[in-house]
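Lay summary

Proteins are chains of building blocks that fold into shapes. Our project writes down both the chain and a compact code for its shape. Here are two examples, one after the other.
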Amino acid sequence: MAKTLLLDQDAWDLVLDASGNIAVADAPYAAAQDVASAQRTLRNDCWYDTDRGIPYREMVLGQLPPQALFQHWLEQEALRVPLVKSASAVITSFADGAIGGVTNITLTTGQTITTTV
């Protein structure tokens, strides 16, 4: 099973467990959190793989790419996460530099999870 460092949902920062150690999240929550992190990654920001991430700087900031293209980017980033078998992004708001919506992901275990975009 996949594990990841647990992040505070509001601050998107590390959380400590009851013993004062960095908290860890297990699947299926780990996969959902990793999808949300992948979708927040800017292209070229991952030094180990500059092709990862959404091209916010190049094609989103100051522009308004087609909503279908943005949905595609979100889905592609979700599919890079281990244990994710399929992903379907649904954009609910897409204007004035604010993007809102959800991504429905299905894990290789068959479990379905919804993450916030």
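And here is the second example, written the same way.
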Amino acid sequence: MNWIVTSILGAFFQNARSSIQKKLNSEISLMASTYVRFAFALPIIFSIFYFYYGNYDYFLSAIQSHNFILYVILGSVFQITFTFLFLYLFKFTNFLVGTALSKTEVIQIAFFEFIILKDHLSIYAIFGIIISTFGVIIFSTKDLKNILDGFFSKSTIVGIFCGTLLALSIVFFRGSMEFITFTEKNFDKALITLLAATIVQTTLITIYLLFFEINQFHKIKSNIKLSFLAGLFGFAATVFWFYSFSLVQAALVRTVGQIELLFSYISSRFMFKEKIRAIEIVGILIFILGLILVIFNK
């Protein structure tokens, strides 16, 4: 059951990172905010990698595999493209529906893991994933009528495609670990993949900022403390995610990881003392029911 603990920790640190990035978004662009989670995490990962192994031999051995490199690059490109498209969602008046439907990511992960990685899930786990996703969608929109009315809208298509891109990135990251054959330790595979992915993502977004938003580097420098925290929490979240991916199917990990919504919900209620709506309780209960099915029918 270690994967459950690490999945919850991944969700916890992701929520912390998102909170930091929300503060940063008022000072720097959304893409620059995305950039700092990778750029400031990279030296942390390099340091931990060297401290843990004493050298970079494992990393150099991993990048000898062309398939490993290909899967890491694909995962990185899909994740960055997801970020672009997800930000595009906010241009729509009914972006909430699209955002909620991007949560179909978990169902799509299960599908792509079956197609690409040949992974199978029990029928109960599949039902659990579908039920928990339905609960998350209800919780996210708080109004089923909005979903039904906007189901064939452009934002719906974009939202579902966002889920597809995120699902593909996760599946390729998990798949890349299967090409690391010189060690059987799951943590080794997670850390090696994390280092490779962060290098690729930092490089790609650096190139983007240099060409399209070069003024953002000065703004990042002016917000160096928050940027460092975003990188630190981003590293913590991703290392727990990747370690979980090395233990079980990513669809199961991300289902448990949806508990991040509960973390953000609880913190929001605690801070703003808002009244709990009945539809939110229904969504949470449906999510928990699906989660129970997943955990006990892995």
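What can we say about the second shape? The chain has 16 helices and no strands.
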